[in-house]
Amino acid sequence: MRKIKKGDEVVVLTGRDKGKRGIVLKVVDERKVVVENINLVKKHTKANPQSGEAGGILDKEMPLDASNVALYNVQTGKADRVGFKILEDGRKVRYYKSTGEVVDV
Fold it and tell me: Which of 79, 92, 98, 104 could hold 70 in an S-S bridge, CB 3.0 to 4.6 Å?
């Protein structure tokens, strides 16, 4: 089980986008995540008339290291650390370390 999953709202902790919030679009591997409208780069593309693609300069999201983002806690309004605990029914769930609130039910 991963601490950060697709669809989570996260806060960027370091880098040029520090403090920005976004939704995780993709978990690339154990260490990298792609966040919506964060870590944008300019990609120069060549036109391809056969597939109908226009050329030009596109904005593209690049992966961030998972250690540079933290889950956003709606109750506190801040970034929060995540831990794991096993419930009485045997399920393993994520919880916020500051409040003890379960993230996914």
Answer: 79
Measured distance CA(70)–CA(11) in Å, rounded = 5
CATH of 9-77, one of 2.30.30.30, 3.30.530.20, 2.40.70.10, 1.10.10.10: 2.30.30.30
Closest CA to 66 of 12, 7, 1: 12
Q: How far apart are CA 43 and CA 66, in angstroms?
A: 23
Strand, coil or helix: what is 11?
Answer: strand
Chain segment 26-58, per-residue pLDDT in tens: 999 989 999 999 999 999 999 999 999 899 999
